[in-house]
Structure formats: C-alpha cells, structure tokens
Amino acid sequence: ISSYDVVGFGEVAHQRSHGAQLILLDARRGQEWSDGHLANSRHIPLHELPDRIGEVAAWSRAAEHAGADPRVWVYCGSGFRAAVAASLLDRAGIPVVHIDDDFAAAGRAGLPVEFDHGAEHRIGETYSD
C-alpha cells in the first residue's frame, strides 16, 4: 500500500511562486492540449501512458539527479484521468502528485496557460473525462 499527495492548482501556483521547477504532466487528449495547457508542462494522453512510463521515469530520475523535485505533478480536465495516471505512475514507483482540480482553476490560480500555434481557443467549451 502506498500513497501520494493530492492537491489543487492553487498548490501548483504556490510551489511555482517559490521557484519550484515542477515536472507537470498533462494527461488530456491532444485537442484539449492544443486548446490550452500549463506552460512548461509535458503531454502524454492517458491512453498512451502505459506504453510511455519509461519516459516519465527518466524525467523523474533526471530531476532527482539535478537536485530538483522528482515528483511528477499530473493533471487533466477535471481530475479523473489524472487520478488514473497518478495511480499508474505510483504503481511504477515514480513519485507523483495528483492535481485533482478542474483545469479552469489553473487560470484562476494565476498559472500561465499556453496554446499551440494555430489552435483556436473556444470560450466556454468543456470536456468531460
């Protein structure tokens, strides 16, 4: 039995405001990523994660080697897919933080959101998990 931290986007903003270099993993689908994602986050859709766990483990090891936070802070649109992803990462022995929050809360917390070039942000469009 193991456990990991569960936080909201407010905690991510707090950590960043204190200079933390976080490994942020977006577990949403490609179109959601294009429509807006946290600055400096990495994207692996949940359905690809089982085949790409090794990549995430390498990010964590590299951060730890550099003296940074080795935890992977995973988010999605509402927290459900992030919960599944966090469980997969934890099971693989990768330190993880589950961001259990609605993605809209990231902006309210003051976190910078980036958009892919050419992607149109559709105001009011929502995605379900």
Distance between the termini: 26 Å
Helix-strand pattern, N to C? EHEHEEHEHEHE
Task: State the secondary-structure class.
Answer: alpha/beta
Helix content bin: 25-40%
Please count the beta strands (DSSP E, at least 2 residues each). Answer: 7
> How many helices?
5
What does this structure look like?
With 129 residues, this protein is α/β, with parallel strands linked by helices. The protein has five helices and seven strands. The strands form two sheets. The chain has a five-stranded parallel beta sheet. Strand 5, helix 4 and strand 6 (96-99) form a beta-alpha-beta unit. The longest helix is centred in the middle third of the chain and has 17 residues, at 49-65. It starts with a strand and ends in a 15-residue tail after the last strand.
In short:
The chain is α/β, with parallel strands linked by helices and 129 residues long.
Helices and strands, with pairings:
Layout: E1 5-7, H1 9-17, E2 23-26, H2 30-35, E3 37-38, E4 41-43, H3 49-65, E5 72-75, H4 80-91, E6 96-99, H5 104-108, E7 113-114
Parallel strand pairs: 1-6, 2-4, 2-5, 5-6
Antiparallel strand pairs: 3-7
Notable characteristics:
7 strands; globular; 129 residues
